[in-house]
Each structure stands twice: as C-alpha cells, then as structure tokens.
Specification:
Strand content: 35-45%
Helix content: under 10%
CATH architecture of the largest domain: Roll
Number of strands: 9
Distance between the termini: 31 Å
CATH class of the largest domain: Alpha Beta
Order of helices and strands: EEEHEEEEEEH
Bound molecules: zinc ion
C-alpha cells in the first residue's frame, strides 16, 4: 500500500470525483459538469453515507453507478408538510430563492434551519426537510483523484481541494 499508484479510497484518503446526480425519473439534480471535481475526506461524513460506502476501495479511473436510498442519503421526510408564509414576513435583505436556507427560532427557543422549497407570487414555502429528503439518488461517478490526506485536512475533517493547499470553508 505504500505504492501511490495503488492508492484506493478509504479512511484518511482524499478522493476527487466527477459526478452526475439524477432522481428516479432521470432528471439531473446536480452535476460537477464544467466544474472542479468534488474533493472529500473519506471517513468524515463530507458526503452522504451511501455514496462514501460505495466509493471505498476504488482507485483513480474507476467508474461507479450507485443507487442510494433516502436512509443513506438525506433521510426520509419527517415532520409537518412545508408551510406557506407571506413574503412580507421575511427580512427585507433576505434573498428569497428556492434552495436557500432560513434560520428561525422556534417558540421554545431552539434554532432551526428551514429550506425554501417553492415560491409563487407573494407566497413562499418553508420546509424543515432537506430538499433531497425522501429521494432515492442515482449517482454516476468517475474517480479522478486519490491521495493521502494532509495533516491539516485530517485535523479539520475535510479536504482542501485537489492538492491539499486550497482552503474552502
Ligand atoms: Zn480546513
């Protein structure tokens, strides 16, 4: 395993991969197309558990088609349905777009994050579930990088880009 050419993804390794994410109907939800490959530190929950599990043991050049059930992705939907709120009830400086998150305080003082899942005219829908909760996710992945994590990356628990020197937070 000291031979770098034989490196495979596993705990303590930084993996880089290109991906296309589709739903059950084949609609593209997300893709690294035209972007840098995604860098992650294996074993630190940087990516959803189901995908991390299936990447383990793969080397550069490997291609993976993975179907991930909700329980190993963003979880099942739970709690109440999305709530409809009037735009005037939002702070003026807030950018109201689908996919954005809003921090709110519950009546008992707890901080929680809600997702904007829909807008229509004056109305905005807020949902306590992640937009991908309840969805089975289909990944097409190509592994394009695999290297041991740097000490900084190990300490921070995330990858610092392709060569370990970029710092994203
Ligand atoms: Zn860091």
């Amino acid at each position: 395993m000291s031979d770098e050419a034989a490196a495979v993804l596993g705990d303590g390794m930084v993996g880089l991969f290109h991906y296309t994410l589709t739903d059950d109907d084949g609609a593209v939800l997300d893709s690294s197309d035209g972007r840098e490959p995604l860098a992650y530190l294996h074993g630190h929950s940087n990516i959803i558990p189901g995908l991390e599990k299936q990447l383990a043991g793969l080397a550069v050049g490997a291609k993976l088609r993975a179907t991930i059930p909700p329980a190993e992705a963003y979880g099942e939907r739970s709690g109440p349905e999305a709530q409809r709120v009037h735009r005037r009830d939002f702070p003026k400086d807030l950018d109201i777009v689908v996919g954005a998150t809003v921090g709110v305080r519950t009546p008992d003082g707890q901080q929680m994050t809600l997702w904007i899942t829909k807008t229509e005219g004056a109305w905005v829908w807020l949902d306590a579930n992640h937009p991908m909760a309840g969805k089975t996710l289909h990944f097409d992945v190509e592994v394009v990088g695999c290297r041991p994590a740097t000490q900084d990356e190990q300490r921070h628990g995330h990858a610092h880009g392709p060569d370990g020197h970029h710092h994203h937070h």
